[in-house]
């Protein structure tokens, strides 16, 4: 019985001895630094919309996270009616050109000059219809990455619709919201540690901007202050990923 009691006392002593430095280490770490958990990867985002045409999306060529090149196809709008319009006008133009050839021997006639004028007008109309047809092919205006696809196959879109949102990787930064009580520990140029929650990537960051009008801060009645932080290394930090910001007090 005494041996068992001695063993328990020794075991308890070991636990206490090991726990004390761990406890004080934890307390010391919390005292010297704090973590901002309301943070995410942001960037300069642009919305890509159809130009001048409306219709149903029949094909999507990209998805969220895909890299795209300037001019690359993003989506296709149903082009059935636009193709039919081009074919109809092109057919009419071909007939008129054939008729103009037939009148070639009467170049001074009123019929010839009148038809020639009509053909010039129709040629411009054909080009316009071809241009409208080309607008059913929605292409990327920049080299970038798809931040979010806003529509899917079967959805109807118009020039006021956003098909996808794109961003340039070079523009990404961390957007954080710090409790006003901890704002006193922040200043422009201060170095912080950034950890991407999704990918486990880690990088140093530098505070670039404090404060500013922000929907998040307004909705929280001024309890949080927005902070913009640049990344020393962007590798592994993806748009909209949640981030932990570790700040030394």
TrEMBL record:
The chain crosses the membrane at residues 7-28. One of its GO terms (cellular component) is cell envelope. The keyword Transmembrane helix applies. This is Secretion protein HlyD family protein. Residues 51-158 form the Multidrug resistance protein MdtA-like barrel-sandwich hybrid domain. Its main location: other. Keywords: Coiled coil, Membrane, Transmembrane, Transmembrane helix. Coiled coil: none annotated. It is found in: Cell envelope.
């Amino acid at each position: 019985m005494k041996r068992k009691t001695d063993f328990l006392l020794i075991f308890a002593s070991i636990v206490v001895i090991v726990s004390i430095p761990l406890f004080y280490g934890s307390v010391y770490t919390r005292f010297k630094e704090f973590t901002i958990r309301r943070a995410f990867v942001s960037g300069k985002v642009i919305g890509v919309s159809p130009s001048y045409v409306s219709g149903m999306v029949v094909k999507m060529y990209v998805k969220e996270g895909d890299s795209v090149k300037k001019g690359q196809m993003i989506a296709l709008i149903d082009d059935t009616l636009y193709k039919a319009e081009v074919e109809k006008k092109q057919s009419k133009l071909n007939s008129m050109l054939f008729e103009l050839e037939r009148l070639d021997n009467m170049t001074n006639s009123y019929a010839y000059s009148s038809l020639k004028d009509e053909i010039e007008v129709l040629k411009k109309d054909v080009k316009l219809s071809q241009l409208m047809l080309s607008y059913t092919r929605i292409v990327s205006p920049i080299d970038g990455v798809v931040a979010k696809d806003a529509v899917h196959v079967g959805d109807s879109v118009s020039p006021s619709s956003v098909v996808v949102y794109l961003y340039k990787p070079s523009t990404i930064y961390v957007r954080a919201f710090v409790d006003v009580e901890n704002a006193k520990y922040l200043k422009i140029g201060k170095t912080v540690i950034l950890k991407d929650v999704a990918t486990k990537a880690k990088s140093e960051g530098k505070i670039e901007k404090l404060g500013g009008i922000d929907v998040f801060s307004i909705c929280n009645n001024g309890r949080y202050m927005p902070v913009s932080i640049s990344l020393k290394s962007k590798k592994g930090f993806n748009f909209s990923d949640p981030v932990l910001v570790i700040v030394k007090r």
